Amino acid sequence: MRVAFLGLGQMGGHMCDHVIAGGHSVTVFDPYPPAVEPRVKAGARVAATPAAAARDAEAICVVVRTDEQALESIAGPDGVLEGAPAGAILMLHSTVAPETVRRLHEACVAKGVRFIDAGISGGEPGSRAGTLYLICGGDQATIDAAKPVLQCFAGHVVRFGDIGAGMAAKLARNMMQYTTWVATHEAVTLAHAAGIDFDAFAHLVRETDVKNTAEFVLARGKGSLLDPDRDADAVRGVTATIGLGFKDLKDAFHLADEVGADVALARAARPRFGYAMGTAIIPEDQL
């Protein structure tokens, strides 16, 4: 396929390399010459603007960092839509706000260009290995038509729904990761303030089931609450865990107060703990 590739940074550069290696005819654009040079040496052509890169392209990959860059490079003056032919497929791989996805989709529709929001997950190792997870929103036929390009750098190409669904799934997944990092940081801060050896604490976390905490929640399925009548056994099963969680968190806060550790996320999470377990139960004796 004739492919335009915009954004040759930490992720996009490796993704583009796989597309070139896959035998596609690639034209690149990036304002940073050192990022462009190795792709040109590998056989890509270079364009002076996004519009020029997209001219005659069948597929267009956009891997920029911010909402502003996405809007400018796609819908701005000299943007992709100034050059892309009708029927081309534009794939937005950047993580942006839902409103940005909607604006770009509308701009593409007005130009007769097909659009997929195709967020990427797997980090730089995944982009180097060509094993990224593509989190797609859009028409299945359009996604299928783009697969000859997408599968050059992806191990999974999954449709989550209509336009915007891919980005929604990516943002939800990222929220889980970032808040888990904050929770882990708070736990390490508390252990350190309490005089616990870091290596010993890290070993404790790695060798117990804390690392599988997300799977505990995922295994329950969708985020709806358990029905006390229909799911009575399940509610009884988590009630003890909820009471224990409230108690343990309360005790952890006492420790944090004693040693002066900031555990703001854990304090905010405690009232929601029952919901995470599947029920709105809040143990009265733990308030």
Describe the sheet with the most strands: 8 strands, mixed
Tally the beta strands.
Answer: 8
Distance between the termini: 61 Å
Number of domains: 2
Helical content (DSSP H or I, runs of 4+): 40-55%
- Looking at the overall shape, the CATH architecture of the largest domain is 3-Layer(aba) Sandwich
User: H/E element string?
Assistant: EHEHEHEHEHEHEHEHHHHHH
CATH topology of the largest domain: Rossmann fold
Provide a count of the helices.
13
Query: Regarding CATH, which class of the largest domain?
Result: Alpha Beta
> Which band does the percent of strand residues land in?
5-15%
Low-confidence stretches: none
Mean pLDDT: 89
| Relevant CATH superfamily of the largest domain | NAD(P)-binding Rossmann-like Domain
Structural class: alpha/beta
Walkthrough of the structure:
It is a single chain. The protein is of the alpha/beta class and 287 residues long. The chain has 2 domains: 2-162, Rossmann fold (3-Layer(aba) Sandwich); 169-286, N-(1-d-carboxylethyl)-l-norvaline Dehydrogenase, domain 2 (Orthogonal Bundle). 52% of the residues lie in helices and 15% in strands. It contains 13 helices and 8 strands. An 8-stranded mixed sheet has the order 3-2-1-4-5-6-7-8, sandwiched between helices. Strand 4 (59-62), helix 4 and strand 5 (89-92) form a beta-alpha-beta unit. The longest helix is centred in the middle third of the chain and has 29 residues, at 165-193. It is elongated. The mean pLDDT is 89.
Short description:
The protein has 287 residues and is an alpha/beta fold. It has helices spanning 12-21, 33-41, 50-54, 67-75, 98-111, 123-129, 140-150, 165-193, 198-207, 213-218, 232-259, 264-269, 273-277, and strands at residues 2-6, 25-29, 45-46, 59-62, 89-92, 114-121, 132-137, 154-161. Strands 3-2-1-4-5-6-7-8 form an eight-stranded mixed sheet, sandwiched between helices.
